[in-house]
Write a structure and sequence with these properties.
The protein has 259 residues and is an alpha/beta fold. 38% of the residues lie in helices and 18% in strands. It has a single domain, classed as Alpha/Beta hydrolase fold, catalytic domain (Rossmann fold, 3-Layer(aba) Sandwich), CATH 3.40.50.1820. Helix 8 links the parallel strand 9 and strand 10.
């Protein structure tokens, strides 16, 4: 079953394409700032993943289903692929399954493989009702939940507008399926494809204080890619586009110029 995803778009459709994939509990619209600044020369397409935003919510929610839905929706145009967190894992999976459509990879604090205990904790937390008395309370709580230390509140609020919405009971909730998010944490605990299967220029941007691990994979990644791999660490936590937008954007721009 191939499902069509909702897609946000920026830029000239005649320009080279960049595909941007959000993480769990996120949405395609959160790529707006990067699309309008550091990716301004691209036609940026940013889908809502299965179970998020305006895309279908029904299961299955496996990595294979996500990959199938992405390819079915976006087609086979060779592109730059950018992914944050679970979106980084999915971009990597697409590159392994369909190397013909991935020219370069940018992985922003990617959840390529997380510890099973962390995945279990996150999945259990995902079962709780995540609702707020107001939009402002939801934005404030995002700083606590995402361990943000350097983000600008106005940027977070702008990214969440239209995605954190008022429910019929008067509480404010995010537009995603809790079940799909829980399933994604289980998928992130599985082993990724071998790094030798993804031989394209790759930038990995890590948050200095992130809770998502990469160090246990770094040596194998470097052995497989050699000079094709660049790893940059920026200040702040896991959500690097909020905590370190300028530093992350600089790293992305420099990588695109070099490659």
């Amino acid at each position: 079953m191939r499902r069509a995803l909702h897609v946000e778009r920026w830029g000239d459709p005649r320009s080279p394409r960049a595909v941007c994939l959000h993480g769990v509990t996120g949405h395609g619209g959160a790529w707006r700032r990067l699309a309008e600044t550091r990716l301004a020369g691209f036609h940026v397409v940013a889908p809502d993943l299965i179970g998020h935003g305006s895309s279908p919510y029904e299961p299955p929610w496996s990595i294979a289903e996500h990959v199938d839905a992405l390819v079915a929706t976006l087609g086979e145009e060779p592109s730059l692929w950018v992914g944050h967190s679970f979106g980084g894992r999915l971009a990597f999976e697409v590159a392994a399954a369909r190397p013909d459509i991935v020219e370069r990879l940018v992985l922003l604090d990617p959840a390529l493989q997380i510890d099973a205990r962390i995945a279990l904790y996150a999945a259990e937390e995902g079962r709780n009702d995540r609702s707020f008395a107001s939009f402002d309370e939801g934005v404030d709580r995002r700083f606590q939940e995402s361990f943000l230390s350097r983000a600008r509140r106005d940027d977070v609020a702008e990214d969440l507008a239209g995605y954190l919405v008022e429910s019929e009971d008067g509480r404010w909730r995010y537009r995603y399926s809790q079940a799909a998010v829980i399933a994604a944490y289980g998928e992130m605990a599985s082993a990724p494809p071998p790094f030798t299967a993804v031989g394209v220029p790759t930038l990995v941007v890590l948050g200095a204080d992130s809770y998502v691990p990469y160090d246990h994979l770094r040596d194998a990644h470097r052995d497989a890619l050699g000079d094709l791999l660049e790893v940059v660490t920026v200040p702040g936590g896991h959500t690097v586009l909020w905590d370190a937008f300028d530093e992350t954007g600089d790293a992305v721009s420099a990588f695109l110029e070099r490659t």
